[in-house]
Model the fold of this input.
Amino acid sequence: MSTPPSEADLERELKELIIESLMLQDMSPDDIDSEAPLLVDGLGLDSIDVLELAMAIHKRYGIKTKADDAQNREIFASVRNLAGYVAEHRGKSSASE
Done:
């Protein structure tokens, strides 16, 4: 069983996933502040971007978020929040399905 990545490693992995899945070729992971908002201000993601990102997270980590989940705004508030959510739910989804 492999050791889960550290929080910093997971944040970097998620930044790379954001850039890759949203085709932000002119950005690097270092351009994304882990605590900056992902929605509207900050990175400026819209609901379509969040949907694309949620699908990429599901594909890579096996973690599903529900479109109508009231927690989504909090989950996708920043890379740090997203990393915490992924770390908490990784492994749980496959066990509960």
User: Anything to note?
Assistant: The chain has a mean pLDDT of 87. Helices lie at 7-21, 47-61, 72-75, 79-89, 92-96. The two ends are 20 Å apart (CA to CA). The CA atoms of residues 66 and 72 lie 8 Å apart.
